[in-house]
Amino acid sequence: MISVNDFKTGLTVEVEGDIFTVIDFQHVKPGKGAAFVRSKLKNLRNGNTVERTFRAGETIGRAIIENRPVQYLYASSQEHAFMDNETYDQFTLTSDQLKWELNFIRENMNVNIISYKGEILGINLPHSVELKVAETEPGVKGNTAQGATKNATLETGLIVQVPLFINQEDVLLIDTRDGKYISRA
């Protein structure tokens, strides 16, 4: 059990049978009435974000999440195969479980699987990944004052805004938290 007063961003908790990670929290001490904690929680089973308010000092269950290194093998229709790097066991996850992550993973890429009491909840991506530009229009020199961007389609199908000097076949560093261009790799 953990007190809501000890909330930290990234903490995983169990509330009403569901597993959540704390995205944001705020301790509120109104002038009149009891203190409370306003929080934004992300459900790890379905990806929904909810806002919950807890009384100060209230205790809830702490969820211990297990991270294991796995390798993404291949995709077949709506299923994606992974292999545990330690035991070589293979398992699949559906496209619905990996909506956002599919924008960043390639075959043979190493990621971390997150599970709770044997139930696989999803994958953890690194903060940034290297992806190749599959298609982009050529940038024309001198057609802008400063900071102009264009669309680039990456090898995974993700479309990002990139500077004009980026060309097809360039390898880019992409932030997996918001899907934005960081730099050339």
From TrEMBL:
GO terms for molecular function: translation elongation factor activity. It is found in: Cytoplasm. Pathway: Protein biosynthesis; polypeptide chain elongation. It comes from Paenibacillus glacialis. Involved in peptide bond synthesis. Stimulates efficient translation and peptide-bond synthesis on native or reconstituted 70S ribosomes in vitro. Probably functions indirectly by altering the affinity of the ribosome for aminoacyl-tRNA, thus increasing their reactivity as acceptors for peptidyl transferase. The keyword Protein biosynthesis applies. This is Elongation factor P. Keywords: Cytoplasm, Elongation factor, Protein biosynthesis. One of its GO terms (cellular component) is cytosol. InterPro entries: Elong-fact-P_C, NA-bd_OB-fold, Rib_uL2_dom2, Transl_elong_fac_P/YeiP, Transl_elong_KOW-like, Transl_elong_P/YeiP_cen, Transl_elongation_fac_P, Translation_prot_SH3-like_sf. It comes from the Bacteria. The gene is efp.
